[in-house]
Design a protein that fits this description.
CATH class of the largest domain: Alpha Beta
Distance between the termini: 23 Å
Number of strands: 12
Low-confidence stretches: none
Oligomer: single chain
Structural class: alpha/beta
Length: about 325
C-alpha cells in the first residue's frame, strides 16, 4: 500500500482530483490517501496559504497529488519546491489522439531545474528601476543534468539536449553548459547536443520532432514548457512532476481556472496524466501504462470527453469512461 498525500487546492483542482481518484480506484494497487489543505480558499479562512500541517503530511507520504492553486500558487508550490528540495520539474510534451496537437508524432520531455536561476526572488529596487539576481551553481546544474541523463537511460531515450544562452549569459549559463558536458562524460552511449534557448523556441515550431530529452535552467524551462503545451493541445493536457531525492509532487499545470470552476466541465486529462507520472515515480510502470492507455482510448474515440476536447461530457462522466476502459 502506498501512502499518498492529496491536496485538491482551489477551483477546478477539486474537480479534476475527484475524477482522478475515481479512476485510480480501478488501478491494481492500494493507496492510502491523506487529504491536506492549501491555496486561496484556505488562506481566506486562516490567513495562511500553506499550513505546516500540510507540509508535514506531504513529508510523511511517498508521493503527493496536487490539484491546483490560484493566486497563492507562489506561496504554495514555490515554497513546497524549496522546502522539499524538489529540484526537478518534469514536463512531458506528447501528442495524443483527439486533441488539437499541431503534430501527431511528438514525444519529448523537458527537465527543468526548479530551485535557482532568476526565480530565487532576489530583486531590489534602484533609483533607475530594479535589479534581479540570477544564480546558477555547479551543484544544482550537476544534479539536474544527471537526472536528465538518468531519466533518458531509464525511459530508453537516446538523446539529451542542453538549452541555454551561454553566448550572452557567459558566466551563469557558462557554468550550466560546462557542467552538462562534464556530466555527459559518464553517459558515452547517449547522443547529446546543446542549443540556444531562442533557437530552441523556433525549432519547437519548425522541427519539434528533433527533441528527446531537454535539460535547462529554471526560467527557460518554464517558458519552453508552456510553448511545448501549445504544440500538443494546450495546458489542459499537460501533466508535471516536481521531484527531489526524497519526495515527488505531481500536478497538472492548468491552474485553478476560476471561469469554469464549479461547472463540472473541467478536463481531467492533465490530472490523470500527472497520476501516470506518479505511478512511474513509484516504479509501477505497468499500471502507469494501463492508465495512460485507457485515457488514450477515450480521447481517440472522442465520444465521452469534455467541451474543450469537442465533446459534451462532464468531468466525472469522462472519468467514468476512462475507468470503464481500465476495467475491461
Amino acid at each position: 500500500m502506498y501512502n499518498i498525500s492529496v491536496i485538491p487546492g482551489d477551483g477546478i483542482g477539486k474537480e479534476v482530483m475527484e475524477a482522478t481518484l475515481h479512476v485510480l480506484e480501478a488501478i491494481d494497487l492500494e493507496f492510502d490517501y491523506t487529504f491536506a489543505d492549501a491555496g486561496d480558499e484556505y488562506m481566506e479562512k486562516t490567513g495562511v496559504a500553506l499550513p505546516q500541517e500540510t507540509m508535514d503530511i506531504v513529508k510523511a507520504s511517498e508521493a503527493c497529488l496536487f490539484g491546483a492553486a490560484g493566486e497563492s500558487a507562489a506561496d504554495v508550490i514555490v515554497r513546497m519546491r524549496q522546502e522539499l528540495e524538489l529540484y526537478v520539474n518534469l514536463r512531458p510534451v506528447k501528442s495524443y489522439p483527439g486533441t488539437k496537437c499541431l503534430s501527431d508524432n511528438l514525444d519529448f520531455v523537458i527537465v527543468r531545474e526548479n530551485t535557482e536561476g532568476l526565480y530565487i526572488g532576489l530583486e531590489e529596487e534602484t533609483d533607475e528601476g530594479a535589479i534581479a539576481k540570477r544564480v546558477v551553481t555547479r551543484k544544482a546544474s550537476e544534479r539536474i543534468c544527471k537526472f536528465a541523463f538518468e531519466y533518458a537511460k531509464k525511459t530508453k531515450r537516446s538523446k539529451v539536449t542542453a538549452v541555454h544562452k551561454a553566448n550572452v549569459l557567459k558566466k551563469t549559463d557558462g557554468v550550466f553548459k560546462g557542467t552538462f558536458y562534464k556530466v555527459a562524460e559518464d553517459y558515452p552511449e547517449m547522443e547529446l547536443d546543446d542549443r540556444y534557448v531562442d533557437a530552441t523556441a523556433m525549432f519547437f515550431i519548425t522541427k519539434p520532432e528533433m527533441f528527446d530529452v531537454i535539460v535547462t535552467t529554471n526560467l527557460f524551462g518554464d517558458i519552453l514548457s508552456d510553448e511545448g503545451a501549445g504544440l500538443v493541445g494546450g495546458l489542459g493536457l499537460i501533466p508535471s512532476a516536481n521531484i527531489g531525492d526524497k519526495q515527488g509532487l505531481f500536478e497538472p499545470v492548468h491552474g485553478s481556472a476560476p471561469r469554469i470552476s464549479g461547472k463540472g466541465v473541467a478536463n481531467p486529462a492533465a490530472m490523470m496524466l500527472s497520476a501516470v507520472l506518479m505511478l512511474e515515480y513509484l516504479d509501477e510502470n505497468e499500471e502507469a501504462r494501463r492508465l495512460e492507455n485507457a485515457l488514450v482510448k477515450v480521447l481517440q474515440e472522442g465520444k465521452v470527453v469534455t467541451p474543450d476536447l469537442g465533446g459534451s461530457a462532464s468531468t466525472m462522466e469522462m472519468a467514468a469512461e476512462v475507468r470503464k476502459k481500465l476495467e475491461v
